[in-house]
Design a protein that fits this description.
The protein is an alpha+beta fold. The chain has 4 helices and 11 strands. The protein has 2 domains: 54 residues, no CATH class; 158 residues, ATP-grasp fold, B domain (D-amino Acid Aminotransferase, Chain A, domain 1), CATH 3.30.470. The longest helix has 15 residues.
Length: 220
């Protein structure tokens, strides 16, 4: 299982539990019997005074070229929805974890929306922390994310189900059982995409969708 605060940044407060046959082993070093896990989480939430989210601990798809049980490589896909209900993918990138991490952040690569291919080898972010270290993304075929078209379809259906939000930043993972939407965020930002691509968000369809919404407000 994967536990994280409902509100937080950079994976602060995250904890991963792996089933070891008889009990759960935490990345923090402790072990818990199944019957003790609920009390542990209740005590943690009460002590830290914050709501905790419990999710399945997923494993990376082999085609990503990283350890299946390392930090979950997480894609951020931002979509916008037009007044007529058409969902448009705006930009996407994917984070990869460093060794001994349980949360993927730091090394990032921009994703080509049309093909699902990485546009470059992952690099450190923010710019002042970049280095020459890259993960091995293998052959050209390995550069293409698995089940990308399926993920696009998932996000379109999900966004249409909550169409009161014009723009949503979706976090998703790629597993052997297919892509999984982890969460949707309304407080997403564009600094990673703009910095790595060297161009403003306004060069995407974000500008036309925003303009459409502003014109609609003027009319009403």
């Amino acid at each position: 299982m994967f536990v994280k605060p409902r509100i937080g940044l950079g994976g602060d407060g995250s904890e991963r539990f792996r089933w070891q046959g008889r009990d759960f082993e935490s990345n923090r070093g402790g072990r818990l019997r199944p019957e003790d896990l609920g009390d542990y989480l209740e005590t943690r939430a009460r002590t830290e005074n914050r709501t905790l989210l419990v999710q399945p601990a997923l494993s990376n798809h082999l085609k990503l070229g990283v350890d299946a049980n390392s930090a979950l490589a997480t894609a951020r896909l931002v979509t916008g929805i037009s007044l007529d209900g058409n969902v448009v993918p705006l930009f996407a990138f994917i984070y990869f974890g460093e060794p001994n991490q349980i949360v993927a952040h730091g090394r990032v690569a921009v994703i080509d929306i049309a093909s699902g291919r990485l546009m470059s080898a992952p690099q450190d972010f923010p710019p002042r922390k970049r280095s020459d270290r890259h993960i091995d993304i293998g052959s050209d075929r390995a550069c293409e994310l698995p089940d990308w078209k399926t993920l696009l379809q998932h996000t379109k259906v999900a966004h249409q189900a909550c169409s009161n939000f014009v723009f949503i930043g979706w976090d998703a993972a790629f597993t052997e059982n297919g892509p999984v939407l982890l969460e949707g965020n309304t407080n997403w930002c564009a600094d990673v995409y703009q910095s790595l691509c060297g161009k403003p968000l306004g060069h995407t369809q974000f500008a036309s969708l925003l303009s459409e919404r502003l014109r609609d407000l003027d009319l009403t």
